[in-house]
Amino acid sequence: xxxTIMVPVPSSGPNHxxxxxxxxxxxxxxxxxxxxxxxxxxxxxxxxRVQRQQQEFRWVGACSSYKNVLIVDDxxxxxxxxxxxxxx
Length: 88
Hints:
This protein is α/β, with parallel strands linked by helices.
C-alpha cells in the first residue's frame, strides 16, 4: 500500500474539498479516501464558532495501513472542522 492518503472534509453542500483533494492526489500520486461523514445535516457556514466546535464526523473506513493521513479542507475559518476530522 502507498504511504499517504488524502481525506477530504465532507460538506453539507457542494464539496469543494473533494475536488481539491482529487487534484492534489493526481499531482502527488497518492490515494484518496472519501470516508468521513457528517453526523448532522447543518450547513457549517451557518453556525457560530461554538456550534462549529460541537460538530462531529464519523469515519466509515480504515486507514491503518497508511503512514500519513492528510485532511483536505477548502477553507479554514475557526479550525473546528479540522479538529472534528482529526477526532474521527
